[in-house]
Amino acid sequence: MAQKPSIPKGTRDFAPEQMVRRNHIFDTIRAVFEAHGYQPIETPAMENLATLLGKYGDEGDRLLFKVLNSGEFTAKLSPELLQPGMATRAALAISEKGLRYDLTVPFARFVVQKQNELQFPFKRYQIQPVWRADRPQKGRYREFYQCDIDVIGSASMLNELELVLVVDEVFKRLGIKTLLKINNRKVLCGIAEHIGHPDRLIDITVAIDKLEKVGQEAVCNELLSKGIDQQSVDRLMPIISLRGTPAQMLDTLRPMLAASEVGARGVAELDELMGLVDKMQPLQTAVELDLSLARGLNYYTGAIFEVKAVEAQIGSICGGGRYDDLTGIFGLRGMSGVGISFGADRIYDVMQQLNLFPPMLRAASQLMFANFGTAESLYSLGVMRQLRRSGISAELYPDAVKMRRQLDYANARQIPFVAMAGESEMQANRLTIKNMASGEQQTIPCSIDPIVEFMNK
Fold this sequence. Notes:
The protein has 457 residues and is an alpha+beta fold. 42% of the residues lie in helices and 19% in strands. The protein has two domains: 16-43 and 107-353, Bira Bifunctional Protein, Domain 2 (BirA Bifunctional Protein, domain 2, 2-Layer Sandwich), CATH 3.30.930.10; 367-455, Anticodon-binding domain (Rossmann fold). Helix 7 packs antiparallel against helix 13 (261-279) and helix 8 (201-208) runs antiparallel to helix 10.
């Protein structure tokens, strides 16, 4: 007996109905991106591992899908690399390429390679899948789509403001109530200095980024396990737990970080950004300052963003931030950029959970022509060519079978109208159209306007 086929865990098939809804998300996001002047690009699914490694931290390196070299890849496996604890080095010996982990690092590589062809500041958008060797769970997949925008070659805070406006417009159009959290990595650097551990920024940010998920006690225990002393932890927790308006929180934070040059710059940047956002009110998206927001990617250097759906229990559905020198790792220094990424798969899950997809979205034709034989089919095909030019999707049932079977097919496909052209209709240059929902049926002239009028009743 043949083995039942399957797909890898953390990946999914999408049926026509799901694809129509996904395309609704992609089309909405793309329209907002283009309305703000962003230009489309694409990069390969595979990148050289040298491009990807070391850009996402240790955890990111572990989650990279690596692609085996062609041919006798085992030739580079020495006995030493087969010993326990050598898995990472062994993987690198037999893999020179990997599937992209996100769209930002490949974008930085793209900018460096194409720098003489681009006009800076360069505004790009990219809608493509990415892959992570993560443990699959609700809302977390191994293959998923990201919808990214970035502005590179400008340090203006107006770029951060534009990202806020894009977030607001996308989720307004999709009907999702959202909360946008903002912080700044410079502030986090200043906090690390303030508690006496400027060299432990990564350990601190990785721990506090879990605060909402695991709670304060678990975060404290993780920090202590990393060798950060109790006194420092006690100084840290009240800071990242600050609440109030952005102005109130920054007024409290400013004197704490006054002795930290980088921290003071971060406070000033947050003050400027929150002031700009305030001038754009009212926004549908709620905006708050969250000093526990860290975002684990190491390349962020300034403002950081995270968006959550207010009415759905799921992780972040959008996130990003400022990176001052990401292209520097590829040899192009001083190229500041800022971007944000929309997680299309989580957005889909939120919209499905909250029943937010428009009811008119269908994976079907608007009109099906019944098949009564060769002559009638050719007549119908001529009409369909005109309808399609007018923007009406239409199809012909391929076989001249019993009418009941053809109507059952139209109902199963949720095709709202069926057209019938038999010998009498052909002689009179007419069509009989049936509304499958109401059962109403009418014979009308075989031209675009009467057909459209009947379908729009």
